[in-house]
Amino acid sequence: MVSLLSNISFIQARRLSYKSIISWYAGLVKSKPHEAPFNHIIQIGDPTLRTTSQEIPRHLIKSDEVKFLIKRMEKVMQKYNCVGLAAPQLGIPFRLFLIQFSEKQLNYYKPQEREVKEMQVVPLKVIINPRVEVTDYTKLTFVESCESVRGFHAEVPRYRGIKLTALDDKESAFEMNVVGWPARIIQHEVDHLNGKMYTDVMRRTTFACSCWQVVNERGGKVELPYGAD
Ligand SMILES: [Zn+2]
């Protein structure tokens, strides 16, 4: 029910101006703390994940609403231990995402895998209104997952190298030239801003439940939590 109400609010908001969207969002935060931006990650099927998100006007980047949204995203990202999170995944269709690939997350992989996938540590970065240019058209295919398709994974082809141009949370413009794993994370997150999911571009026959063996071991008695509290 909560999700239905939020979707109706969202559809109504789509017809309004940026100013109206900000006040609509501010209204949600003050009067309906249980609505977007959520404390959980929304799941595939929610119409917000199929929306083309809107740019954040530069003068609103330091607004209380956007600051609040970024803080909430940082909190949820930590809670779910994910390497990227886009604003629409919390129910807010803005062109904003966060990436982070920590030393701890890097160490989860074996050295050989790190090398093949060109993994490297990426400090937490706020990315607003991104533009992506492909710098290396080589397609690399590796297993990928998404917290909005919780409990599954698949092989997904992505370009090896990209140049990212964007604004950060201080309104400063920056550029990043990246290859390998960080380029994959960024392509995944930018897709979210365009209403695209990895399931649209995955190798379909590789789509798998991430715990199918456990399902067998426990005779089907496995629960998948959608919140990470
Ligand atoms: Zn995702």
- Unreliable residue runs: 1-16
Q: Give me the CATH fold name.
A: Peptide Deformylase
- Terminus-to-terminus distance: 20 Å
Q: What would you say the CATH architecture is?
A: Alpha-Beta Complex
**What composes the largest sheet?**
6 strands, antiparallel
List each distinct ligand once. Answer: zinc ion
CATH domain class: Alpha Beta
Tally of strands: 6
- Beta-strand content: 15-25%
Shape: globular
Number of helices: 8
Structural class determined from secondary elements: alpha+beta
Into how many domains do the coordinates divide?
Answer: 1
- CATH homology-level superfamily: Peptide deformylase
Integer average pLDDT: 89
Radius of gyration: 18 Å
Helix content: 25-40%
Please provide the ordered H/E string of secondary-structure elements: HHHEEHHEEEHHEH
Organism: Zophobas morio
EC number: 3.5.1.88
InterPro entries: Peptide_deformylase (IPR023635), Peptide_deformylase_sf (IPR036821)
Catalytic activity: N-terminal N-formyl-L-methionyl-[peptide] + H2O = N-terminal L-methionyl-[peptide] + formate
Key terms:
229 residues; alpha+beta; Peptide Deformylase; 8 helices; 34% helix; disordered N terminus; binds zinc ion
Explain the overall architecture:
By secondary structure, the protein is an alpha+beta fold. The chain has a single domain (40-217), classed as Alpha-Beta Complex (Peptide Deformylase), CATH 3.90.45. 34% of the residues lie in helices and 25% in strands. The chain has eight helices and six strands; from the N terminus they run αααββααβββααβα. The protein has helices spanning 2-14, 18-31, 64-80, 103-107, 111-116, 181-193, 198-201, 212-217, and strands at 84-86, 96-101, 122-144, 152-167, 173-179, 208-209. Strands 1, 2, 3, 4, 5 and 6 form a six-stranded antiparallel β-sheet that branches. Strand 4 and strand 5 (173-179) form a beta hairpin. The longest helix is centred in the N-terminal third of the chain and has 17 residues, at 64-80. It is globular and about 55 Å long. 31% of the residues are buried. Mean pLDDT is 89; it is low at 1-16. Zinc ion is lined by residues 146, 148, 188, 192.
